[in-house]
Amino acid sequence: MESRTMKLYGSLTSPFVRAVRIAAIELKLADEIEFVATVVKPTAPNRSFGKDVNPVRRVPALETANGEILVDSRVIIEHLNNVGRGTFIPNETGARVACLNRHAIVAGATEALVSAMYETRLRPAEFQWPDWVDDQIDKAEKALDWAEGNLDGFSQSFDLSVAALICLLDYAEFRFAERDWRKGRAKLDGYVSAMSARSSIRETTPPVA
């Protein structure tokens, strides 16, 4: 059996874990990473994971080849980019800052949707806060509108921000399928549809759950 030098803790349905898996494939490091299925959610806090891996009990987390634990998808991808000597996060200062800025907007929208998902799926109906849920979903809508208007920045190369954008849209359609997330965003729809043929995207499509 081939030796794997890193361990990735996470869930296959997490958009942040998916972004790391996409990066690993793009950087040709997937064969060096063992995936450790890890459940962490408000109804299953997984305190042993918090004790042994990530004290704030969030995925993804990566155990590196030298045993160091890295948390947060952006930090993990930064590490993989360095190990793979790649440009998934650009090296040139201007391009790097632009990529990270795009990623920050998209990742913030993804966090909002994850929060909305927990509120609507896990919190008892009588305790839910509909206005707050609507606001979280609106953040995602506005981020996708922003991406539609700034698609030229995303389409320069396949980088961290592009992976995060695809993960956001796919997660929105996965968890909030009743909404038409592509309506009025023809350029974004066409771009993401074209990128979906890429092997790193196909291989990381979340299972139906």
Please characterize this protein's 3D structure.
With 209 residues, this protein is α+β, with helices and mostly antiparallel strands. It folds into two domains: 6-83, Glutaredoxin (3-Layer(aba) Sandwich), CATH 3.40.30; 93-198, Glutathione S-transferase Yfyf (Class Pi), Chain A, domain 2 (Up-down Bundle). 54% of the residues lie in helices and 8% in strands. It is built from nine helices and four strands. The protein has helices spanning 15-26, 47-52, 73-83, 93-121, 130-149, 151-154, 160-175, 186-195, 199-202; strands at 6-10, 33-37, 61-63, 69-71. The protein has a four-stranded mixed sheet, with helices on one face. The radius of gyration is 17 Å and the shape is globular. The mean pLDDT is 96.
* Beta-strand percentage range: 5-15%
The largest sheet is:
4 strands, mixed
Mean pLDDT: 96
Order of helices and strands: EHEHEEHHHHHHH
**Count of DSSP H/I helices:** 9
Overall form? globular
Number of domains: 2
Could you say which structural class the secondary elements and strand pairing correspond to?
A: alpha+beta
Radius of gyration: 17 Å
**CATH topology of the largest domain, anyone?**
Glutathione S-transferase Yfyf (Class Pi), Chain A, domain 2
Q: What top-tier CATH class of the largest domain fits best?
A: Mainly Alpha
- Mind telling me which CATH architecture of the largest domain this is? Up-down Bundle
Kindly report how far apart the N and C termini lie. Answer: 30 Å
Total count of strands: 4
Helix content: 40-55%
